[in-house]
Amino acid sequence: MKNIVLLYWPKGGNVENSAKKIFAQFNPNDIEMYDVESFDVDTLEDYKTIIMGSSTVGAENWIDAANDNLWNRFFRKIEEHDLSGHNIAVFGLGDQILYPAHFVDVLGILNQEVVKVNGTLIGKWPTKNYSFTDSEGVEGDYFYGLALDEDNESDITDQRVAQWVGQIKSEIK
């Protein structure tokens, strides 16, 4: 069993591409990667570190009524687990230009879910050098995790990913 699991949704597109970039920064003997749909939630406690990533979507997509909300289903299942002592890092994608008032709000949602299962959030990321007006994914001068903008800043994604992965490797207990 590997120590780290990287979970992402949705499949395809920028989230999956970003997950692959993060995955590539680790020794393949230490990490496994799954989309949320194909992951067996009952194995979650087997991993010491959990990395989760998603894109920011409208609030209507996070309610229970949304039939295609796999993150919501995942979070309801993990509420049955106590992840005390587990490191959890999150990454989110957003668009600073089109949605400056909701940039990477998903990081706030992911953080709330980490708190519910007693996980230890690692990998907070500075808000410096981003241009947005508001975000539920921010506390003070830090995002709850890595913020990526593939629509406007894809040229610096690799650099941000490498720095963030280095940071979370140093924070893993």
Short description:
With 173 residues, the chain is of the alpha/beta class.
Class, according to the CATH hierarchy?
Answer: Alpha Beta
- Secondary-structure-based class equals alpha/beta
How helical, in percent, are the residues? 25-40%
Main β sheet profile: 6 strands, parallel
Kindly give the count of domains.
1
What's the overall geometry? Answer: globular
Q: Return the CATH topology.
A: Rossmann fold
The CATH homologous superfamily corresponds to: Flavodoxin domain
Quote the distance from N terminus to C terminus: 18 Å
Instruction: Provide the residue-averaged pLDDT.
Output: 91
Strand content: 15-25%
The CATH architecture classification is 3-Layer(aba) Sandwich
Q: Could you tell me the number of beta strands?
A: 9
**Which residue ranges are poorly predicted, with pLDDT under 50 across at least 5 consecutive positions?**
58-65
Give the count of helical stretches. 4
